[in-house]
Amino acid sequence: MRRLLNFFVGAGTLAVFLLVFVALAIWSRSNDISRIAAAFESVPADKIVPVAKSENVFRVATQNCQNYSIEFRRVAGASMFWPKPKSERAALARSLARVNADLVALQEIGDEKQLRLLKNDLKKLGCLYDYACVLDGRDSVRRLAFLSKVPFARILRFPEEEEMSRGVLAVETEVAGTRLLVFNLHLKSRLTRTREDPEAALEREGELLRALEILRETIAGTPNYLLLGDFNDAPESETIGLLRASQLFCEIPAADGNGKKWTFENAAKNLEDTSDYIFPSPSLAKRLAGDKIFINDASVLSGSDHRSLWLDLDFSQQASSRRNSSQATASATSIPRGDNASVPAGTTSSR
User: Fold this and answer.
1) 134 near 111, Cβ under 8 Å?
2) Do residues 183 and 227 touch, judged by C-beta distance below 8 A?
3) Residues 233-271: pLDDT tens digits?
4) How many CA atoms lie within 13 A of 336 on its CB side?
5) Which has the least CB within 10 A, 25, 93, 104, 115?
6) Does any domain span residue 32?
7) What's the number of domains the chain is made of?
8) Does the reported pTM lie above 0.70?
């Protein structure tokens, strides 16, 4: 009898332990689910004052989103696959809403789901993008994408998986009856893969040469085009030198409101550098509204290690008249008059 009693007491104790274990597991699981759900929630709405622009101006921007994807991160002291932190997403969305571009080229977007997440965050801030596209290249984590307020006439995808890590993504749209081609590019980072290629400079140069081949094949009959994105190289580099030598673009000075020219910050090395660019065609450069390409203020750095850049293009009738005048240029000191001219780049700023 005593043995039977001991058996039931032991079984009861074990049952209690099992119930407690199951309850803790359910609580932990529900807590994890809540954390995951919170990570994917839209950012809170905020009052954003966009950078002003006139009615006939079409604004084009570029932004490296810094790992806007689900990847291995440290979360609450543990390592796990996790989306971009909500605070960083909120800061990035506020920055892009401030720029309020009509067309924005994005680098380092995870996939279409992450792109929709960014679209929803921007929508809550009053910045609506009805059109979007993404490119699947060899790099399945850091993709190229576009968000647009106007329809795409064409989406051109060049994965180039053998020659480029992220390929080339281009879109064609129409603005005031004028065709506009925009090419989005994200060249190889400076993390090298071989000792023979320090900082992967040769790899970036090879990627750019292939991108220029694609561009030449695509722009036939289209004088209005842009190349923009993260080139991962300084203005004095061989990579940017190849762009100048191509004679396909004009090089417009870029600066923020304080005259600073850096677009990338490496906080660990206390370094500010220039690696993001917008290069318009000679024809398009004559439509420039203002005398420079604008760099966003430093507040974006809480959401990315890159600052956004944008330029304003004037498609009004007055701009067309000025363009047809022999005296007209978008900037007498900065923009080349000839179709194949270019000006030196800005210098790198470091601290």
Assistant:
1) yes
2) yes
3) 999 999 999 999 999 999 999 999 999 999 999 877 777
4) 19
5) 25
6) no
7) 1
8) yes
Q: What CATH number does the domain containing 258 carry?
A: 3.60.10.10
Pairing between strand 271-273 and 264-266? Answer: antiparallel
Q: Does residue 224 fall inside a structural domain? A: yes
Please write down the HEC assignment for all residues of 232-288.
Answer: CCCCCCHHHHHHHHHCCCCCCCEECCCCCCCCEEEHHHCEEECCEEEEECHHHHCCE
Residues pairing with 278 in the sheet:
228
Nearest to 229 by CA among 209, 211, 246: 211
Give the pair of three-digit tokens for residue 252: 């417009």
Residue position matching structure tokens 């100048």: 244
Q: What are phi and psi of 294, to 5 degrees?
A: -95, 140
Both tokens assigned to 58 = 């079409």
Contact 242, 208 (CB under 8 A): yes
Is the CB of residue 290 less than 8 Å from the CB of residue 329?
Answer: no
Q: Are 209 and 166 in contact (CB under 8 A)?
A: no
23 part of a folded domain: no
Range of the domain at 237: 40-324
Q: Which amino acid is at 64?
A: N
**264 falls within a domain:** yes
CA angle 161, 242, 244 (to 5 degrees): 130
Query: CA separation (Å) from 202 to 206, 261, 274?
Result: 6, 25, 19
Span 266-317, pLDDT tens digits: 877 777 999 999 999 999 999 999 889 999 987 667 799 999 999 999 998 6
